[in-house]
Amino acid sequence: MTFGNFTAEVSKWKFKEVGTSIWLESKPGGCAEIYSDLLYNKKIQDPFLDMNEDQVQWVSKCQWEYETNIEIPRIDNKEKYKLIFEGLDTFATIYFNSEEILKTDNMFLKYSVFVQPKLTNTIRIVFGSALNISKMYEHRHGKLKCWNGDPSRVYIRKAQYQYGWDWGPKLISCGPYRPTYLISYQSHINDFYVHGDVHEDLSIVSGYIETDIETDTQVVISMEVRSPDSIETVLHLKKPVSGSGKFLQEFSILSPKLWYPRGYGSAALYHVTVRLISKTGNIICQVHKHIGFKRIQLIQHPFLEQSGTSFYLQINNIPIFCKGSNWIPAHSIPSSVSKTDYKQWLNSAVNANHNMIRVWGGGYYESDFFYNNCDRLGLLVWQDFMFACGQYPGNLKYFVESVSKEVAYQVQRLRNHCSISMYCGNNEDYQIAEAYNLQWDKKNHTGDYAKTSFPARTIYEKIIPELVAKYHVGIPYHPGSPWGGEKTSDPTVGDIHQWNVWHGTREKYQDWYKLGGRFVSEFGMEALPSYSTFMRCISEISEIYPQSLVVDFHNKAAGFESRLASYMFENIRLRTMDMKSWIYATQLMQAECLGYAIRSWRRNWKGKGKRYMGGILIWQLNDCWPVTSWSLVDNFKTPKLAFYAAKREYRAIAVGVQRQGNELQVWCVNDEGSKENITLSLDIYEVFSGQLIEHYEMYNITLEANSSSEILSNYELPSDGPMVANASIIHKDEVLANYGDWPQPLKYLQFCKRSIKLEVYDGYVVISTTMPIKGIELITENNLFFEDNGMDLFPNKEMTVSCPELKHTDTVTIRHYE
Ligand code: BMA
């Protein structure tokens, strides 16, 4: 917030195609993009509806211009006037009162220009066609390798997913997509940064506040740090200054309240305010930030009993098992994502027991609002730089210069966010190098790879790490995702993307336990979104069936028919192929698949010196349009059943069961402190009849702190028919964790008729059964959110499922696997 000076923000643009004469009003709000503006004016059909995406491709081939007037309250010759663009997508020529003042070519940069305004001013921006320009570069420099989208995309610094992805439409937009404003000042705080080093015994944080100011006169900088609970003023200092520059103020805080990721403590944030104060004591300018302090290490040490090295984060001396998913842009048109949307999306990550989210490299650097919320929620952010699945032209001067500015700017912005916990050079560009045999000499560490066919190594191995080390000291940097070891697929070093389920060799998901790595930063399975989502994106009801043209159009994954079909046919009994049953079946399959992976991989978090796996990130949390994809939650924020599977498996305490032939192994993962006097209760039921065959209890179990504990290694199942095992971890009558392990594949199971008792109340339902039931889905007509869904239910384990908006008069229907 600024005082004294003024800020005039653009709230409304008008726009037209270059060369035409009719101006149209932009969507109100000040952040504008061509697709949303044309849609707002009903000049195009909704690209998310039916197959309209194909009809709107002409838009990206045109040039567009945006114009607005900006009024200012006064002109004072003593003041400076600066026009600021938080984000321009991408090739913009900007005119201020008819004079050209700036040309841009990078969507990820903030631009500012000093101007001499009048009381009323015109800003006009002409946007070139990014598609035509990237094609022009490609024509000039040659076609480069890539997966997903038009390969010319790698030549320009624009959100790559807009060129089309295996979950997203091709909508190559343009426009002033982030805020534009004019500020005036005599003295001004451009920014400040708080750097804090936490001592290894956590007893003190010491560092500095670096304030970047501009001033012609003598002013006083005041720096105030208040404790996270706002009660205590930890620091309040004033310092006179008489010129522009960066001012450093050292500080230290004894017994600091540190920032912890979710599940490990509170995400404590100090309140830091920097002010400029005039000679007369007036506040001229003030900037406020919420700052957290953490000690972070990426632990990569060798093991005694396994090859390779660990790969996990240690925060405030606590080893953290990262549980989360990958974040893609929440909309094909970035400015369409509202603050409410961001909050809801991040809350869904929290609701699914995430402690980490990976901002994937094919989108854009998110707004501060996104990261502020991650800071507040204690969500660790794995931040990719914006390169994905491509051979980038790291040998071209214009490209390297633009990237260097972008990285320097973004790191200096992001370093204010305590949630940032890992920087990563790119997404899968090293895999591209492997797939296309690009020249990648692993012994060459000169930092100059411009003459090889993999010139972007200079960016990932020299430019970015140097800038991260300069501006955000102490945050781990990883050159790529995946990266490490002899090959990017090496499961013993660094992270891997495990796509041999779905893509690759199409392994069975029951074999996930063989497919882990030190950190799996991507793996996934597709499922259809909900029926209501199809109702909203397909206008002809006759097109809403599993194999229809339009349903298929809303799936962009290569070979999805055979991949989805093979996992379905391997696992799930299909009694009918009507749309609702197909949706349920694909969602159940996805939920089973992801549940298997998380359960078996968390088992490898084995305690000191044996942290064989340090994290799991599901591909992907969200969608950018209505589509069948790997997401947990669809574009209209309706969770799929896999959302709940992730939520259950990511709980702080979770029990796992693995079958080896006729024997069961049982373990329990525990992210909390150690727990004693734990009981394991095992109920074995015959699947068809649902009859209880055996009950077994084991007492006095200790769950080790922050690790998995093996409980049973060879419990023999009765051999007369398929059996389902229900394992519960109990402490003094409280069930801490519960899981049902069914014979695989599920398609061979037969059941006698099941019944579920359902009671509906305001805000919750109670369900119970006399026989084990798989995959219960609770549904209301208006899609209300249940806190759990798609769950298994066992006799004598009545479940209360909260559903805050439910009324006792609502109709709740139930579907389950049979
Ligand atoms: C990964 C991602 C994306 C892609 C996904 C699904 O490798 O990095 O590029 O969308 O797989 O194929």
From TrEMBL:
Belongs to the glycosyl hydrolase 2 family. Beta-mannosidase B subfamily. Signal peptide: none annotated. It comes from [Candida] anglica. Gene3D superfamilies: Galactose-binding domain-like, Glycosidases, Immunoglobulins. It comes from the Eukaryota. The keyword Plastid does not apply. Keywords: Carbohydrate metabolism, Glycosidase, Hydrolase, Polysaccharide degradation. Residues 663-748 form the Mannosidase Ig/CBM-like domain. This is Beta-mannosidase B. It is an enzyme of class 3 (hydrolase). Residues 13-178 form the Beta-mannosidase-like galactose-binding domain. InterPro entries: Beta-gal/glucu_dom_sf, Beta-mannosidase-like_N2, Beta-mannosidase_GH2, Galactose-bd-like_sf, GH, Ig-like_fold, Ig-like_GH2, Mannosidase_ig. Pathway: Glycan metabolism; N-glycan degradation. It catalyses: Hydrolysis of terminal, non-reducing beta-D-mannose residues in beta-D-mannosides. Its EC number is 3.2.1.25. Residues 188-294 form the Glycoside hydrolase family 2 immunoglobulin-like beta-sandwich domain.
